What we know:
tRNA-binding, Threonyl-tRNA Synthetase, Chain A, domain 2, Thr/Ala-tRNA-synth_IIc_edit, Anticodon-bd_dom_sf, 34 strands, 651 residues, 4 domains, alpha+beta
Amino acid sequence: MQIAVEGKTTDIPEGASCLDALKESLSGKKLRKVVACKCGGRVLDLSAPVPESCQGLEPVEEDSPEGLDLLRHSAAHVMAAAVKRLFPDVKVTIGPAIENGFYYDFDAPKPFTPEDLEAIEAEIQKIIAENQEFTCTVMPKAEAREIFEKMGETYKLEIMDDLEQDTVSIYRNGDFVDLCRGPHIASSGALKAVKLTHVSGAYWRGDENRPTLQRIYGTAWSDPKALKKYLNQVEEAKKRDHRKLGRELDLFSIHEDVGPGMVIWHPKGALVRTILEDFERKEHLKRGYDIVVGPTILKKDMWEISGHYDHYRENMYFTEIDEQIYGIKPMNCLSHMLVYKSRIRSYRDLPLRLFELGTVHRHERAGVLHGLLRVRQFTQDDAHILCRPDQLEEEIMGVIRFVHDVMGLFGFEYEMELSTRPEKSIGSDEDWERATNALKSAMESHDLPYDINEGDGAFYGPKIDIKLKDALERRWQCATIQCDFTLPERFDLSYVDQDGERKRPVMLHRVVLGAIERFMGVLIEHFAGAFPVWLAPVQARVLTVTDAQNEFAEEAVAVLKARGIRVEADLRNEKLGYKVREAQLEKIPYILVVGDKEVEERGVNVRIRGNKNLGMQSLDDTAAMILEECQKPFAQGGMSYSFAHANASSL
Ligand SMILES: [Zn+2]
Ligand SMILES: [Zn+2]
């Protein structure tokens, strides 16, 4: 039969394996990097026969996203094999590949210790050295049941009970047998960089009434260099952990006695947040939004109209006042609907863009709460755009441009994903299609690349999720644009069109930064606590060498403050070196030292964060330099922003 590999067509005998077919076309060097192949989008084992219908094979290389997935999933099998060798009483459950690694859940008589993990890792290396082949056998379910029954692998039996098909596939490597759809790499020797990372508890099938399992996590990469880079990134992420930096820089705290997932902002954190919010208000006004403010609690009836009561109730908090039940808002949409409805709208009034820094409460399970990144109370930079159907695409583009500019301001790259209709949803098929197409065509007509997230939309409409990439190349979901044809219907919103007819507006829900709390968490980690000058809570600190300079230091602070700079003096009777170190630990962008010479010449000795020494400068030049540094990110992003208003002295 004829088969094409990377544009080269060769003849292969019927029943030839994928590996045989690839050997015909690929160089030995390239072939060594291939861990599987793809035919018509389906990934196949190299040992599998080339399917009859297959016309072309595409090699899957070890460092491609699909290749890495295979390495990681295969590493999970190898880890399970190692565990079974060392702990024969352990029962295996499931072991998928995950982002950057893999895990396997075991039902073990006692928790694994760090020493156990070391022993398992050593055993993994042995199995890799043995270069065990992964072989796949397809068999009737009954036959597979017998195999796993004999081994006492009761979890595998339970998994099989839920499978509807009559045949299943099992994969073997050495003595280890696993129920698995595959595919896999050809043999364990292809694993060149595997490392176990940690153990945690997990419930079988995530159900807290089922047995507690031991989940061993590991990571696997195509080569030791990539593994090392990843492990360094993990180390760096630990150093940058926003909970640690939040404490050290005195930005915020979270107290169990107050409630999990509730943040208390300390002066410096609250100041950074205020600067962000102030920037947002101005930027929204500039882009044609109106600022509105709605109540935190609204009567239950309102949530029934919106559909939240039926579809989102389990995530909401309720309270009772005068025998009337109120829902604490998990979203800001409802008040905005009422602003729209407060008067008759003409086609000329649209689009209406209503913006609110709205504080919402959502009941997240205690187990998923995480510092600022997952909280129960947070403030969104939320807006609802109500427009005519013919304006929809331009409005979507306007939001994308907004997000683009703001991401540029912080130096973030970003990616876009389109999420389509989930299983649990409201609205007609036709509406969903219209909304999904509007989002698609806005991106496509501007050549913006995007991925599709099947079934991950909100219950009321499809959405574009924008994921930013931070300094450690981690992705964070912040901005979203959600299309909604349902809420205008439910609230019976209308406008009078050119032809005098009443028509239904279309609505977009959108956030740019998303939750301010979460965005702050991302910023802290991205900048490792060293905020850009325009955001830094303290931009400059004046340090004296001895008491003799106190008077001038205070004068310098007053001069810089008057120019709108957030500056303070450290007049403590401590050694200069000590004061400098402390300011550096607090990541203050400018350290301004004042000694006798500086007093005499009415200047400051300037040290920039990162330890660059500029020598003595006049107060005037220093102020101009700091203010210019504040403007820089805005000039690059094509935005203008007046700093005089962003500063503490004028807030
Ligand atoms: Zn498998
Ligand atoms: Zn909304």
